[in-house]
Amino acid sequence: MQRPVHAFEQTSEQSSEQTLEQAGVRTLAAELPARAGEDVRLAGWIHRRRRLASVTFVVLRDRSGLAQVVVRDPATVERIEEYAEETVVEVTGKAVANPQAPGGVEVGEPAFTPLTDPAPTPPIELWRPAVNAGLPTLLDHAPVTLRHPLLRAPFELAAAAVAGFRETLTGLAFTEIQTPKIVASATESGANVFKLDYFGRPAYLAQSPQFYKQTMVGVFERVFEVGPVFRAEPHDTVRHLAEYVSLDAEFGFVRDHRDVMEVVSSVVGGMLAAVGERAPAALDRLGVELPKLPPRIPELHFADALALVGADPDEPDLAPAHERAIGEWALREHGSDFVFVVGYPMRKRPFYTHPQPDDPRWSNSFDLLFRGVELVTGGQRLHRYADYLAALEAAGQPAEPYATYLETFRYGMPPHGGFAFGLERFVARLVGAENIRQVTLFPRDLHRLAP
Amino acid sequence: MQRPVHAFEQTSEQSSEQTLEQAGVRTLAAELPARAGEDVRLAGWIHRRRRLASVTFVVLRDRSGLAQVVVRDPATVERIEEYAEETVVEVTGKAVANPQAPGGVEVGEPAFTPLTDPAPTPPIELWRPAVNAGLPTLLDHAPVTLRHPLLRAPFELAAAAVAGFRETLTGLAFTEIQTPKIVASATESGANVFKLDYFGRPAYLAQSPQFYKQTMVGVFERVFEVGPVFRAEPHDTVRHLAEYVSLDAEFGFVRDHRDVMEVVSSVVGGMLAAVGERAPAALDRLGVELPKLPPRIPELHFADALALVGADPDEPDLAPAHERAIGEWALREHGSDFVFVVGYPMRKRPFYTHPQPDDPRWSNSFDLLFRGVELVTGGQRLHRYADYLAALEAAGQPAEPYATYLETFRYGMPPHGGFAFGLERFVARLVGAENIRQVTLFPRDLHRLAP
């Protein structure tokens, strides 16, 4: 399923590709090593200028990487003085082998054509290999700071990961859906929901596509969705966002939650493979190694997990320190950066959760921990209409606001389950980001609504 | 890039696939013709029961299609009486060749195991080949009515089309992005925007990712996004939705809008090819033929388009009747269901539109009409900072609310352009839907906020 990143430049017989970059006319920085001895035309941003006594080095940045341009002509050296960093230029010249140049080939005898007015000094020095600015500066000026090769890299990983998510599920005959983000009632949790004015009526932003994806199991059996979800999180932490990209899947005719865990394992494997195949340069730049994913992800029952970490057996949930300890156990005992915790107490799970048949204190649900932090939540759902009515009554909730959702189960639904996780959290754990905002394109939180 | 829809069942050596359906244990309806003489286990919804004097026919529906089950055993015939349409069951039996059965193979000697309680009578008769109910009924009961093979088909086409959109652009080295849907100001048009309470401050739902995708051209050169957009449309028409799925692309280092039109042509071609390859059964069910897309889509300048339809040369836009006439012209003269109209008057285009260099009354922008209705809008954008300041001033708008957006251009942006269109509109034209709500999963409009 892989296509090379620069398929475009390599298949010049296709007409749209010829036109787009008039194949052979624009050379990308990454292609320069193969063009020694040829006339080339590059285009990109002035990444860095370095004026020495007899020569000026210009580093040009384009989507593929960096290219070194060597300027010796005094008039051109003077002109370059005007082209501050981030000015967009075209450069024509000759590709020349030079073992000292990055990639072994540089551009000599250059002529520059500016495509914009000279740029002012950016809020951070984009040419510096390391990023020293604080997160608020980086986020406030994201339109420019994201151009830094290190700061854009997480979003290359995210694009690859989401492609891997879709490909894995498409290969398993799942159908992609897009469900509404404006919803009539704040049903799933009630709290932390954004309210909006919908033609004079109250409406809400969807906290998850949970109800819709279950409904669509009745139509397609197997569905997935990639889309934004919204949480009015009043917490200002390194882990919380008010808007994030949720990767959701749901499917029918399962035996129980174990079938869901199998699909989760395939999906995580497919995402990691896609990252390795599609974004190796970004992994390199970040110095990130792909995590250890054994053929079979280890698992622990929730009760055994509590015992393992020495917690009170009546604890209803795992504390962050417990999750870390379980993550360390999985790595130590099973050589795995991933571990399933299975059977979370019913009282901590949403009303549609399927209980563990032999002991209804526990549920047929699970979390997948990635390096000691919860990544995926999933499980088997109730599927019988009568069970939904009973679960809502037990939760002290009226059935009426759920009328449409319940219609799904009234007319026959197979045993089913699914899972969800945040794309940003996946990338954060992958690159070891301390703050989820580092891997979120234009994050939204308690304080931040722009850019 | 194509994988067969049932790859799952065909590659039983993969562990997750074995588990999911215990390959060979569950047979899909579409696989039945290949299983004559074997014992099979099917699972799905009771689509239809028909009791004759000595035999009852049960049609079972699963995600792959319909299977006929023949019941002769009197006790089983009686039991079947309880399993109303939409009850979910497992059926074991013997696959038997019968030239009269759909697909030539049916299931005999069946044993039924219900997976749900018997379902009540659905709001429409899902087993009837035609759909006679009115749109309000279909939409009110969408969780059930979408199960009808004709009503689910448009969403199979949509899933295929969106996959084709992504594959085409990924093949052209575009990077996928996800940008925020909660934004600080209602900048692009000001009108028709949903307002929400963002932690006590006003915020808005994004009407398009326009500003963000342009910004990201500065980072990745070529980007695309598939995501929801929100329009507080006060019009109750067959064409308007309050929320829809927007397919957006934007890219840099273009010569002008013609490079954008080339990519639009490739994308539309890729989407139609994907629909043909991935969803042939849905096309068949709907009796839809793929539209005529010539190697080169015909085009007309806006001024020539006005002349062609006999409109006043000072008209600022094309009326729906004009668009229809132009669509007929393209089909008649060029054998094309698609036609570009190029150069719309600047005064009708947004402030970031690039003027036509030789005559600034016109713009470097275009619409793509599909069967006489506007499908795609795109064009070249301004890229120089000074041009943005001048354009905002000419439009009588202050620069301050655009501060973040303008930062992008301040620090150097290449000549660039892009396009956008609604997934639902594409599917509506493809299947000839009279009302866009017929091809929208859970539509949102002036009156409708549920299901």
TrEMBL record, chains A, B:
Subunit annotation: Homodimer.
A single BP term in Gene Ontology: aspartyl-tRNA aminoacylation
Binding site for L-aspartate: E188, R231, T377, R381
Keyword terms of this UniProt record: Aminoacyl-tRNA synthetase, ATP-binding, Cytoplasm, Ligase, Nucleotide-binding, Protein biosynthesis
GO cellular component, one term: cytosol
Record-listed E.C. numbers: 6.1.1.23
Catalytic activity: tRNA(Asx) + L-aspartate + ATP = L-aspartyl-tRNA(Asx) + AMP + diphosphate
Subcellular location field: Cytoplasm
Keyword check for Aminoacyl-tRNA synthetase: yes
Residues that hold ATP according to the record: R231, A232, E233, R239, H240, L241, E374, G422, L423, E424, R425
Sample GO molecular function, one term: aspartate-tRNA ligase activity
Domain Aminoacyl-transfer RNA synthetases class-II family profile: 165-451
Gene for this chain: aspS
Record field: compositional bias (Polar residues): 9-21
EC top class named in words: ligase
InterPro entries in UniProt: Aa-tRNA-synt_II, aa-tRNA-synth_II, aa-tRNA-synth_II/BPL/LPL, Asp-tRNA_synthase_2, Asp/Asn-tRNA-synth_IIb, NA-bd_OB-fold, NA-bd_OB_tRNA
HAMAP family per the UniProt record, alphabetical: Asp_tRNA_synth_type2
Predominant location category: cytoplasm
Site features described as Important for tRNA non-discrimination, chain residue numbers: P102
Function: Aspartyl-tRNA synthetase with relaxed tRNA specificity since it is able to aspartylate not only its cognate tRNA(Asp) but also tRNA(Asn). Reaction proceeds in two steps: L-aspartate is first activated by ATP to form Asp-AMP and then transferred to the acceptor end of tRNA(Asp/Asn).
Stretch list, region Disordered: 1-21
Location of region: Aspartate: 210-213
Family: Belongs to the class-II aminoacyl-tRNA synthetase family. Type 2 subfamily.
Protein name: Aspartate--tRNA(Asp/Asn) ligase
Any Pfam family matching the protein: tRNA-synt_2
